[in-house]
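Example 3.2
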Amino acid sequence: MPIEEHDLRHHGDAEVRDDGAALVDLAVNVRADTPPAWLREHIAASLSGLAAYPDGRAARAAVAARHGLPVERVLLTAGAAEAFVLLARALKVRRPVVVHPQFTEPEAALRDAGHTVDRVLLREADGFRLDPAAVPEEADLVVIGNPTNPTSVLHPAADVARLARHGRTLVVDEAFMDAVPGEREALAGRTDVPGLVVLRSLTKTWGLAGLRIGYLLAAPETVAELERAQPLWPVSTPALAAARACVGTAALAEAARAADRVAADRAHLIEGLRGFAAHGLRVVEPAGGPFVLVRLERAAAVRARLRDLGYAVRRGDTFPGLDGRWLRLAVRDRETVDGFLSALGRALETA
């Protein structure tokens, strides 16, 4: 069956560029009011060392300690996006499979590297939950997000681990896992799952999308293979300073508090959205990430009207497995959510 074309390189930031710069942003999944002052100051202090080439050893050791792993299992990357490119270019795979709907950059990177990519499309009727049996046995690379962007589904770790096979690389994108209270269902730090590669991003919770910092956890031989494909000094000195700071004890405690706030604010958003059920609006539940996915027959018109009213939301039709009836909404604080819900009510009446 031919693969339906989607704009795999469309991301939420497109909604708030140019004429969208003044809009209230519910399109980008980066925590608002970040980076915090203490982190900005820490990054700024690193600028005095810019004359020297970046040395990632201390940051790599800090990330390893955060997950209870040896440093040989850690690879620092210029955001999770670089990790997807490295995996696509360095690993010798014959049948890669991407589980959709999910972040589209992994498939884009694989296709750019010359791979033919198969898709497993999770079904709305099943709540977009993972069925491990739906993934072909012959797949030697499987990519899945958890919690998944844009559905906000948090798959049980046991179900995700069932995808592992000897001879298969299982890539789990946990970019939003630190927004889940207790990081329940995380596989980061596990060494008993064959072929496991876990990706983490520090850009979402800490508001560092412009700095580009993330990391990958995998078996030492996989890390070594990917590291050989990296350019020299791939992570800048300020990004390395941020990595060390964001995996420290105080930062992890702050992230845990932020995750609890996100969960409460998400519940408030979902409760408000349920009030528009009479307009045909449906929320995908339960939601586990710092965003929610909604279905609405007039989604494109409502999205355009919301822009007129000062709010940006993410269109869903660029995600394989979704169409123009879907919108993704980032979780924001209650005051922002209340303003958005009021605008949404007006948009539904007038779009």
